[in-house]
Amino acid sequence: MALALRKYRPNEGVVPTLEIPPMNKAPALLFLVLLLSSPAAATELRSPNGQVVLHFGLTDSGGLRYNVAYRDKPVVTRSHLGLELKELPNLMENFRVTSVDFREHDETWKQVYGERSEVQDQYREMVIDLAGTDLPTSNLQLTFRAYNQGVAFRYTIPRRPSMTQVVITTEKSEFGFAADHLAWAVYSAQGNYSAVPLSEIQSGCERPLTIRTSDDVFVAVAEARLVDYARMKLGPRTEPPLGLVSELSGPVTAVLPLTTPWRVIMIADSPGELLENNDMLLNLNDPCAIDDTSWIKPGKVLREVTLTTIGGKACVDFAAEHSLQYVEFDAGWYGPENTEDSDARTVNVDPKRSPGPLDLPEVISYAGERGIGILLYVNRRALERQLDEILPLYRQWGIKGVKYGFVNVGSQHWTTWLHEAVRKAAAHRLMVDVHDEYRPTGYSRTYPNLMTQEGIGGDETSPSNTQTLTILFTRMLAGAGDNTICYYDPRVVLNASHAYQLAKSVCLYSPWQFVYWYDRPSSSPQKKGGAGGSENRIGDEPELEFFDHVPTVWDDTKVIHGQIGRYAVIARRSGDRWFVGCMNSGESRALQLPLDFLKEGRQYMAHIYRDDENISTRTRVRIERVPVTRESVLEAIMSAQGGQAMRIEPVTK
Question: Please, what sign has the CA dihedral across residues 308, 310, 316, 318?
């Protein structure tokens, strides 16, 4: 449902406030009548449940300001908005309001895949048209949306006869706070997080930035629908009160009209609720633009590490036997990835990575006969030179998807290039995984062939459990993260446990889930150098059945327990099966897991995978089978660096 409610055209720059009743306290018709009968438009915008309230107003100098409250408590204090333009008057102050539009929207849409099968998109919107008091041609439009999960806003610069193009040099979107709250900051997409007070935030802070404003209120400042604009990061506000300001990764040049990406403030009672609400970023993106999505297939991926025909076939056989869907050939299959001379149109193995031989067409054919898809890695050097050639070529070869490596990010140019590269891949029915510094802002709703992306300090970086449990409630608010799960690599026992690694496949969402990142099947040849020694041979440990069974996309998601950097228990449903991941750090814990999310009256079997030093296998994982019902309560007992995974299935008679 979407209703255009009212347009208000004031005669002066003061816009009185109208109290908008919560949707759960007044029917939609009454809400409409109240607006239409009001003598003035609202500067107050309430979320549908009435708990999130945004105020907009003008300063004495005609500047733009807003603030946000949650459950009658200030969350974002008085903050200013504006844009600085090159060789044109800045859009910062001397404004008057010329009209205000209100709209209400409520719909539920089905995802191609996701962390839940359906997403509710419900908000109230206020669109404010502004004109300059000194320069009447200095027009600007602000759009605010109030969700039950937070607020979002964006700027629109309309086209005018006297101005058809602009260069935005600086964006001044502020996020003010009443106190020196604790925040979890990182300064590169794959960097290490630090818990610091807001006063210690430095320039170039990544988004989403999660902030604890009180024991029961958590905020995340994020970006949505970044398609052809410069990336936003965050820096300290130079003027009191304490706060943050947007920082663009370069200027933005655009033909008018121009609409910026959304600036988002997610608000929730807990870190777990923030994670459950991360589809707010999807809602701020355009609907799916691909008519036929039947070729877009999530799944588990095994990386082929030897770059040989024998190794490729061994991976295909393993994938087919263990319910994996893809085998990926990583860097080196077409030559050294970091040189301009390598040609991604040919198979020419980098001798520093593998002696070969690699008959890729033979492996592709072998895989196709067994229902396994082949994915190829291509470094940005080849992508930038050969993209328009390799995409139709890979489609002809029978490749299912491409991993874009070391892509340039940040500037408007490279942001535009990358999203165009995703669209071009879709035109050739190729799925995409973007690696290294790229962080998502919800574009996978519009082009769901963008399966996943890195932008995460995943297992390749050997993160501590504390880091991963911080990533879960910060980076993962933005969307899927290609964590590249290791299982047999020695770094696992240095940082965590094997049951903890199993749990990652549930907790860290990725429609393409790479498992056994440094590992290879027992029939695969020895990898030349680096990871992949004898300790990385995939064995026959019984708990590997969990990876065999676990899906990569979900019909429902529930965060049962969660504290940033400390622990998490997440339950996800696929059909009538539930999978639970429990991750821990810092100290031993026993967390209760009520199973009230199960269906009433049904019997289930819980397959529990937990760490046990008394088990004689090299992974030390015990499997327990426990009958359960909706009334059951399980207990996740975890060591200081341990975890637990569960598979809960209905009992068939």
Answer: negative
Q: Is the peptide bond before 355 cis (omega within 30 degrees of 0)?
A: no
Same-domain status, 178 and 221: yes
Are the C-beta atoms of residues 618 and 603 closer than 8 Å to each other?
no
Other C-beta atoms closer than 10 Å to the C-beta of 452 total 28
Asked whether residue 293 is assigned to any structural domain, the reply reads: no
- Domain limits at 158? 2-283
Write out the two tokens for 514.
């790479």
CA atoms within 13 A on the CB side of 503: 32
Tell me, what DSSP letter sits at residue 258? E
C-alpha closest to that of 459 among 303, 639, 298, 276: 303
pLDDT tens digits for range 223-250: 999 999 999 999 999 888 899 999 999 9
Residue 294 lies in a domain: no
Predicted confidence at residue 262, as pLDDT, reads 99
Judge if 543 and 417 occupy the same domain: yes
The Cα 55–Cα 75 span in angstroms is 12
Query: Residue 508 above 90 pLDDT?
Result: yes
Element (H or E) spanning 112, and its range?
none
Q: How many domains does the chain have?
A: 3
554's tokens:
């979900």
- Same domain (yes/no): 532, 567: no
548 and 585 share one domain:
no
Q: Are strands 118-132 and 373-379 parallel, antiparallel or unpaired?
A: unpaired
Strand partners, 568: 562, 583
Q: Does a structural domain hold residue 291? A: no
- Other CB atoms within a 10 A radius of the CB of residue 450 amount to 28
**CATH number reported for the structural domain that contains residue 69 in this entry:** 2.70.98.10
Indicate if the pLDDT at residue 379 is higher than 60. Answer: yes
Q: Which residue, chain included where needed, has tokens 């690599």?
A: 489
Distance CA 446, CA 290 (A): 8
Locate all alpha helices (DSSP H) within 522-647, ordered by sequence: 545-549
User: Is residue 38 domain-shared with residue 106, that is, in the same domain?
Assistant: yes
640: pLDDT strictly greater than 80: yes
> SS3 letters for 63-109?
CEEEEEEECCEEEEEEEEECEEECCCCCECCCEEEEEEEEEEEEEEE
CATH of the domain at 401: 3.20.20.70
| Segment 461-495, tens digit of pLDDT | 999 999 999 999 999 999 999 999 999 999 999 99
Let me know whether 427 and 333 are in one domain: yes
| pLDDT category of residue 61 using cuts at 50, 70 and 90 | very high
* DSSP symbol at 198: G
**C-alpha radius of gyration, the chain, whole number:** 26
> Could you give phi then psi for residue 545, rounded to 5 degrees?
-60, -25
Instruction: Show which of 241, 257, 283 is a domain's final residue.
Output: 283
Handedness of CA 624, 627, 629, 632 (dihedral sign): negative
pLDDT value of position 135: 72
Token pair, residue 415, equals 């942001």
- Together in a domain, 532 and 579: no
Interior/surface letters 439-448, b for 16+ CB within 10 angstroms, e for the rest: bbbbbbbbbb
Helix or strand or coil: residue 189? coil
Is residue 220, in this structure, part of any structural domain at all? yes
Does the structure show a pLDDT above 60 at 16?
Answer: no
Same structural domain for residues 620 and 531?
A: no
